[in-house]
Design goal:
The protein has about 500 residues and is mainly alpha-helical. The protein has helices at about 1-30, 35-45, 65-70, 75-100, 110-115, 120-125, 130-145, 150-160, 170-180, 185-205, 215-220, 235-240, 240-245, 245-260, 265-280, 300-310, 320-345, 350-365, 370-390, 400-415, 425-435, 450-455; strands at about 420-425, 445, 460-465, 485-495, 500-510.
Length: about 500
């Protein structure tokens, strides 16, 4: 009987992951753009890493992303989105196996509650570092539960290669190895970061790179970070229901409180704390308050969600525990209603899933739920969660400003200037032209020094989004000297936030 149930559960797992894969691929195929400009930059780094091998270890690109995406990136953005969809479906499956290791009866639900989280779903058809980081983390946690220490050490060591702010949390894996007296696996876990940091310490002749990412804080090496800014320490706490989705968030809070404390709890609390502190006090880490950083926890949240549904059938014996859980769930209700209210005021969108989830949270407050109602609640949770996914997650449609950049690249590639040296900042221009942006004889960053040193005849692409800020710091006024620069083409558009966008193409004539 038990074996038969497990077989049925495995079929449900395969069906769930297959359905999620179809959803992820569908989003990718219907997208004409990608998550952000960062995605295009990651794609460019991966695509040109074969020609410039040092890009495989590029700090901004992250080797944890660049290396596994280097090959597929040769086939374009659609191929990268397809690989992300497959990887996301695999992560959902890993989350289910992690739930099975924690004795969750309907463990396949963890796959669904991982895949329907809005930020995780967006990453499934994007080119960003959080998705491979989630894959490394889930594999390491699963190996830890199964006591496969070598696998755990290897994949734990890969986690900061995708998102370096996770480095302090490797201590939780290190403690497991020390308890088991697996001392040499500690070296295996540290090896990826030693290779990465050692390469740049030698390449740049700067020993402080051995301390990366701590060197950014200790020696203020974060660069131009004022563009990203900081925010209140509670920022990421308020973003939890937004990133995880109403149903997974509500169920995960309940599962978090009911499950016996383990490494999943430590990772959840530790990672949210790191994001909160970094965004609040450490701008050099460039966290920037992005919701997508929370998607690294998606498989853990999915596991907690599945356990939360199972725990509904288990009584809470301690009165203080019962009231403590109810107090936490009241805060969840407030968060869901607040999120729904803000979305309605700012965008005119009714988050039906958030409103329905308030009723779900009310059921979670009951001391115990009958088996028949528990099964109905499982079905309702999946349906409401899918509704929330389709309400909140839409295909990436190219912005008017990005389309103007692509229009400019079409003109440029058909013009007599296409063989000239290009100075630019916006990554869409390098993507649209296909020029190697890491070949200094063809492409250079648009900085005042580079503009001054560029040979006569060079093409300078100024845009109002990047050129004037961060490491470029090139105002347009620098180019408005008709004795030195000739305006060739000019494009106007609108950014996603409604602000005007300008792109101007100059040629240096003196």
């Amino acid at each position: 009987m038990v074996v038969g149930f497990l077989r049925r559960s495995n079929r449900w797992l395969w069906l769930s992951c297959g359905l999620l894969l179809v959803i992820f691929i569908s989003y990718g195929l219907r997208s004409s753009s990608t998550y952000s400009d960062d995605s295009i930059q990651h794609l460019l780094i991966a695509r040109w890493s074969f020609k410039h091998p040092e890009l495989l270890l590029d700090v901004w690109g992250r080797p944890g992303f660049t290396i596994p995406y280097a090959l597929i990136s040769q086939f374009g953005l659609a191929a990268v989105h397809l690989q992300s969809a497959i990887l996301a479906a695999i992560i959902c499956g890993l989350a289910a196996y992690l739930a099975a290791e924690l004795a969750v009866e309907w463990y396949w639900l963890a796959a669904i509650f991982t895949g329907i989280q809005p930020e995780f779903a967006r990453l499934s058809f994007a080119a960003l570092t959080e998705l491979p980081c989630a894959a490394y983390l889930t594999t390491a946690l699963l190996a830890q539960r199964r006591q496969h220490w070598k696998i755990m050490a290897l994949f734990a060591g890969l986690i900061p290669l995708a998102r370096y702010e996770t480095l302090p949390l490797l201590i939780f894996f290190a403690i497991s190895l020390i308890k088991e007296r697996r001392y040499w696996q500690l070296g295996l876990m540290a090896l990826p970061m030693l290779i990465w940091n050692g390469f740049w310490a030698v390449r740049l002749s700067d020993w402080t790179n051995l301390l990366f990412p701590l060197d950014r804080v200790l020696f203020e090496k974060g660069g131009s970070v004022s563009f990203y800014g900081t925010g209140p320490w509670w920022h990421y706490i308020t973003r939890l229901p937004v990133a995880f989705g109403s149903v997974p968030f509500a169920l995960a809070v309940y599962g978090f409180l009911r499950m016996r404390w383990n490494s999943l709890h430590w990772w959840t609390v530790g990672y949210i704390a790191i994001l909160a502190i970094s965004y609040w006090k450490l701008p050099a880490t460039q966290i920037a308050g992005y919701d997508r950083h929370l998607a690294i926890l998606a498989p853990i949240i999915g596991t907690f969600s599945a356990y939360g549904l199972q725990a509904l059938g288990q009584p809470i014996n301690q009165l203080w525990q019962r009231w403590g859980i109810r107090g936490a769930l009241i805060l969840v209700m407030i968060g869901l209603l607040g999120m729904a209210w803000i979305r309605w005021i700012t965008r005119g969108i009714i988050l039906y899933d958030a409103l329905l989830s308030v009723g779900l949270v009310a059921l979670l407050m009951l001391p115990m739920l009958k088996a028949s109602w528990q099964q109905r609640l499982v079905a309702a949770s999946m349906l409401i969660g899918l509704l929330g996914l389709f309400i909140r997650v839409q295909p990436f449609i190219i912005q008017n400003s990005d389309q103007q950049v692509l229009n400019a690249t079409q003109w440029f590639m058909q013009s007599e200037y296409r063989e000239k040296l290009v100075l630019a900042a916006i990554p869409w221009f390098a993507y649209g032209t296909g020029i190697d942006p890491y070949d200094p004889s063809r492409y250079q960053p648009i900085t005042p020094a580079a503009v001054e040193q560029a040979p006569v005849g060079s093409i300078i692409v100024w845009d109002s989004r990047f050129s004037w800020t961060l490491q470029w710091q090139t105002p347009r006024s620098l180019l408005e000297n008709p004795t030195r620069f000739r305006l060739l083409k000019q494009y106007h558009g609108v950014n996603s936030n409604g602000n005007p966008f300008e792109l101007a193409i100059y040629q240096k004539i003196n």
